[in-house]
Amino acid sequence: MRYRLNNPLNRMNVKQQLFLLFLIIIIPLLILNAYGNYKADQILKRHVTNAYIELNKQNFRLINRDIEAVNKVTSTVFQNSLLQQLNPLSTDETILQRVKNYEKLENLLTTYSQETDEREPVYYSLYVYDPQNTYFFAPFYPGPKKSGVYFFSDDEKPDWFDEAVEKKGKGYLRLIDHLSPPSKGQGDQRTLAYIRAINNIYRNGTIGVLVVTNLDARVQESLQTVSLPEGELYFTNWSNRVLSAQSNEHEDVLELPPEVADMGMTSGVKDVITSDYIYVVNYNHVLQQKLVYKVPVQALLHQQKEIKQVIQLISIVFFAGSLIFMLYFWRSLMMPIQKLVYFVRRYEPGNIVPETPRREKKDEISVLMHSIYEMARRLNALVHYKYTMDLKQKESQLQILYQQINPHLLYNTLESIYWKSTMEGNTASAEMIKELSKLMKISLSRGRELITLGEELEHASAYIKLQQHRYDYQFRISIDVPEKLLPISIPKITLQPLIENSIIHGVKHMGEDGEIVIRAASDEDNLFIFIEDNGYKSVDYEMINRLLDEENPDPTFGYGIRNIHQRIRLHFGANYGLQYSKREEGGTRVTLKLPKSVREQP
């Protein structure tokens, strides 16, 4: 058995095939463009990152130089004989000697705190534990931008003092919120400080803690010398807590990518390029410090334009040539086909066919267009003929439906019997004959096919009274129709068959519990009449609604309600008619939808 390969192009129309051709031409260009931009971005990122690495090294070296200078000064202060002889627990000194020593230490620290090169000064302060308050005369008002010697008791001890003592003379950087307990009414004292405990050279123990404040301003000077395009600079400790930053608005802890978050026990420089940022991190485990450059990738990509411009120029030229090539075929082939497709989709049998478009070319498309327009005109002629025949058929059907009503002679005869029964004293029989004559009178309606809703309700009431007299029915009847709706015209003998169904299939055996409700309502365009009963029998509403619309219904299906449904549609169209549904309180509801615009006929 031979298998034949199917060409997938056979399943595509001409427009799709042309579009596929255009994609085959353009897609390689787009791929080349995207690849060129990608490689240009990667090269730029790598070159810029290498430049930032060198800049970061120099910046980190400057910061470490400042910190090392501070460390050397603290070593000098550490070895000062006056400081080494300081002992608040000693009772050999007089108050005057203590005052003189205090003044000398104050002058010493003030001297180191002065800067001569117009840079931000750093302030050296000595904190000494004085449990016996022997230096009671020394003021205890430390500040981040002032130097001094401060003696404190247990209730004035700063929270970082014991931490510094535990490091046993090793200096370190720390972000300090308060230089003394905040209960002393301090303001904002947040500062980056270099802290180092001063140990006694001659005997064991700690003399105090030397604190160098305002280091964040000194670090800020070094950070401000670097300019990054929309980038951010951070100076952090080993736990990524921000000690100083180029911007004042930043988080307390810097979030870094996993590749640079944990450096281990090493020192050096590492860079990571993510989809959003370039990170350059210079870290020193010995000093427990990091200098982080965080540069947005988009800020760099704005700078690389030349390579993209060349690639884009080639792409535009190639795209323009392809577009011109496609437009030529589009105008000569696809535009006539599109016009023809537009006509075929919009055309409905019976509508006016416009003039056949003229074409200078005598090709296959011209022949096709001429043939389709002529075929539409011939189809219109057939549609008009069929419409005329259908109209005559509907008129015949209406006449047949209305001929099912009894003739005028029966009405006159009933009137005579009514008067005779009244004169003979047969009141009940006379009343029934009277109601029946009303039925006949309204059924004839002087030959009118449409009567008012008020007349139809009178016809329905006469039928109900006749049935109650005839079978002694005890059900209740309720009619709720606004007066403004009574003049609206509806097809005659519309309500009576529906009420008959409600009696026979709904409330016939319910006695006084049975109830039939006739209501009417309207909106802007339509009239709705509802006939409801509280019957207890189960009803298949979907089947009834389906059989109402079938062309060849089941002969056992009720003829009366289908007669009503068909007459309404013959008068007003397929949007109107009957619909059966379940009543919310139990029972059945029949809804008649009629146009409100039809008025009473003379």
Q: Tell me the overall shape.
A: elongated
CATH architecture of the largest domain: 2-Layer Sandwich
CATH class of the largest domain: Alpha Beta
- Spatial order of the strands in the main sheet? 2-1-5-4-3
Largest sheet, strands/sense/barrel: 5 strands, mixed
| Quaternary structure of the protein | single chain
Uncertain parts? 404-409
- Gap between N and C termini: 80 Å
Instruction: Classify the beta-strand content into a percent band.
Output: 15-25%
Which structural category do the helix and sheet elements fall into?
A: alpha+beta
The CATH superfamily of the largest domain is identified as PAS domain
Helical proportion, percent range: 40-55%
Named CATH topology of the largest domain = Beta-Lactamase
Q: If you average the pLDDT, what whole number results?
A: 77
Total E-strand runs: 17
Provide the number of structural domains: 3
Number of helices: 15
Radius of gyration: 52 Å
